[in-house]
Amino acid sequence: MTRHDVTLEWPGGSTQTIEVSEDETVLEAAQRAGARLPYDCRKGTCITCVGRLTGIGDERAAADASGTEAPLDATAAFTYRRPPAALTDSERADGYVLLCIARPRADCRIEVGPRVRAEVGDSPWA
Ligand code: FES
């Protein structure tokens, strides 16, 4: 079975790399590995579990002179178990991922934590 290494990046610089098989979500693999991530609905509707893609394989989001990272498109990097209703297409193109329903298609790095959640705002379904 295909597995991908997913590195979770928390504020403050701590990281944890977990193995995610092709039939499980990032959240499921994180829980199996003992990594604590926030979640609520587990259906892609509440946005609690959102993370942001910062690298795919060896590719990293590049920062410009102001330190702002150019987004990596998350659309091609994940398949979803069900429609990610809480994200717009443009948010997905900016790298945002709902970890409760997302299955990675490549090794990748994902920023997690309250800052990512604050960037996205509230779910349109809340
Ligand atoms: S836990 Fe609600 S969208 Fe993931």
Structure in words:
- The chain has 126 residues and is α+β, with helices and mostly antiparallel strands.
- It has a single domain, classed as Beta-grasp domain (Ubiquitin-like (UB roll)).
- 16% of the residues lie in helices and 29% in strands.
- The protein contains 3 helices and 8 strands.
- The chain has helices spanning 26-33, 89-93, 114-120, and strands at residues 3-9, 15-21, 50-56, 59-60, 78-80, 96-98, 102-104, 108-111.
- Strands 1, 2, 3, 4, 6 and 8 form a 6-stranded mixed sheet that branches. Strands 5-7 form a two-stranded antiparallel sheet.
- A hairpin with a 5-residue loop joins β1 (3-9) and β2 (15-21).
- The chain is globular, with a radius of gyration of 13 Å.
- The model has no long low-confidence stretch (mean pLDDT 90).
- It binds FE2/S2 (inorganic) cluster (FES).
- FE2/S2 (inorganic) cluster is lined by residues 39-42, 44-49, 86, 98, 100.
- FE2/S2 (inorganic) cluster binds next to loops.
- Its cofactor is [2Fe-2S] cluster.
- It comes from Natrinema halophilum.
Please name the defining characteristics of this protein.
two-stranded antiparallel sheet; about 130 residues; 3 helices; alpha+beta; single chain; Ubiquitin-like (UB roll); binds FE2/S2 (inorganic) cluster
Low-confidence stretches: none
CATH topology: Ubiquitin-like (UB roll)
Q: What is the name of the CATH superfamily?
A: Beta-grasp domain
Structural class, from helix and strand content? alpha+beta
The value of Rg in angstroms is: 13 Å
Whole-number total of structural domains: 1
Shape: globular
**What's the CATH class label?**
Alpha Beta
Bound molecules: FE2/S2 (inorganic) cluster
